[in-house]
Amino acid sequence: MKIDDMRHELAHLGNNAHALAVQILGNVDDAADAVQDAFAQALGRGHQYKPDRGSLRAWFLRIVRNRCIDLLRGRMVESDSTELLSDPAPGPEAITEFAQRDHLLHLALASLAAEQRQIIVLRDYMDLSYGEIAAVLGVAGGTVMSRLHRARVALAKAYREYDEQ
Amino acid sequence: MNNRTSNEFHVGELLSGYIDGELTQQNRQRVSQHCEDCERCRQELVALQSMRDRIAASRLSDIGEEAWRETMNDTTVKATRGIGWLLLIGGVLLAFGFAVYEIVTDAAISTMERLIIGGIYGGLLLLFLSVLRQRLIEKKTDKYKDVEI
């Protein structure tokens, strides 16, 4: 793929990448930084992308996810903590428009585990195929449906609980 | 894959595969037929589909493609500038090392000349290191570094 074509495609994927990064990092600005870093990595390693081995979207989102995980590890080192900080759910300020328009759904989504938020966003928001989701998350393709179903059931349950409060 | 409750089978995770169009024809028919008879699975299917539609209709990021394009350009500029600085500093250090080597090994240069040239080079090196150190300290501690003018 030509570098200009890749730049065009990556710019088009920016918002999806940012949405995923927000679910992992829980912060809009950190997520934007992660996406910027991922752009640099993707453009620097563009020759490693092989279209016959998967979509550019899945390849780039995997880079974004890995960058987010690196940033989370950095946070753990900075805070000198051995506790896992990898589940910072997006706060009310993180997804303002979404939070205002569908507040209960936002709360329900934020209450899920990070892995569940990611798989729901990858499928229901970005419309990735199960194969692409497996590539992004680095899991076996055969486990995507069960993981996704558990996440959706958890989301529906959380939503009902917030709705009843 | 199937969940057994009381005396019937439910289709469980196949509901998600059904919603996403990721099932084989056989499993798709199985879910359809099951939901015709099973009120619980039919309701779960509707609830999951509703959640899916609402997530799909939401906007989880609204930065915009043009902004990402500019971000990417900034990234390229930064990377190019970084490589440029690396090449420049590497070249200067090589030239400096080569000059020192020549001065030390060239028998035609007297001790006094070596001292004078050594003083000039040493002074330049100290000044460079001093400025570099100051810049690094400022970069770390400048609280206004992110303020755009």
Topology:
The complex is a heterodimer of chains A (165) and B (149).
Chain A (H helix, E strand, L loop, with lengths): L2 H23 L2 H17 L11 H23 L17 H6 L1 H8 L3 H12 L4 H8 L6 H21 L1
Chain B lengths: L2 E3 L2 E3 L3 H7 L4 H13 L1 H19 L7 H41 L5 H31 L8
Antiparallel strand pairs in B: 1-2
Quick description:
With 165 residues, chain A is an all-alpha fold. Chain A has one domain: Winged helix-like DNA-binding domain superfamily/Winged helix DNA-binding domain (Arc Repressor Mutant, subunit A), CATH 1.10.10.10.
What Rg of chain B is obtained from the alpha carbons, in whole angstroms? 35 Å
What's the order of the H and E elements of chain A?
HHHHHHHH
How many beta-strand elements of chain A? Answer: 0
Helix run count of chain A? 8
Give the oligomeric state of the chains in this entry, treating copies of one chain as homo and distinct chains as hetero.
Answer: heterodimer
Summed over residues and divided by their number, the pLDDT of chain A gives a mean of: 86
Percent of residues in β-strands of chain B: under 5%
Low-pLDDT segments of chain B:
1-7, 145-149
Low-confidence stretches of chain A: 82-86
What fraction of residues of chain A sit in β-strands?
A: under 5%
Q: How many distinct helices of chain B? A: 5
Biggest interface reads: A-B, 44 and 35 residues
CATH architecture of chain A: Orthogonal Bundle
Order of helices and strands of chain B: EEHHHHH
Output the strand order for the largest sheet of chain B: 1-2
The biggest beta sheet of chain A is recorded as: none
Number of domains of chain A: 1
Q: How many domains make up the coordinates of chain B?
A: 2
Structural class of chain B: mainly alpha
Give me the CATH fold name of chain A.
Answer: Arc Repressor Mutant, subunit A
| Mass-distribution shape of chain B | rod-shaped
